[in-house]
Specification:
The protein has 132 residues and is α+β, with helices and mostly antiparallel strands. It contains five helices and three strands, in the order αβαβαααβ.
């Protein structure tokens, strides 16, 4: 995925992916989403993009982000963050955890609340071609 591509070549990679795509292509792109600004895997990742950086690169290379969701949260950290920053989501997680168990509750809340996750899944499609 994109964090293993040298930063200066990422735009070429995304452009090439677009060049070989069709109008109905859907691209799934998974990336780390560090919570503390440090690289998740400093020995193997060339560059870990912020959400804003990756959204900009995708846009510049002709990709439209149609959805993004979170995966893989450290629930010791995530529960604290939710409690402090997103009380309604914390309450939803706690209700789901009691009713359906922690693994399913975590999966549901991660998808809805990407800001607490260590990884993001981006779903993109080619931008419509603008005729002048």
């Amino acid at each position: 995925v994109i964090e293993h591509v040298p930063r200066e070549k990422a735009h070429l990679t995304l452009k090439h992916a677009l060049d070989v795509s069709h109008d109905d292509t859907i691209m799934y792109l998974a990336t780390p989403a560090t919570l503390d600004g440090n690289l998740v895997w400093p020995d193997s990742h060339d560059w870990e993009y912020t959400r804003e950086e990756l959204a900009q690169v995708l846009d510049e290379q002709g990709w439209q982000v149609i959805d993004m969701y979170g995966v893989d949260a450290d629930w010791q950290v995530a529960r604290k963050m939710l409690r402090e920053t997103n009380k309604p989501m914390f309450d939803l997680y706690e209700t789901l955890r009691k009713r359906i168990g922690s693994p399913l509750a975590a999966a549901a809340v991660q998808a809805l609340c990407p800001e607490v996750c260590r990884d993001l899944a981006w779903i993109c499609k080619p931008k419509p071609i603008q005729l002048i």
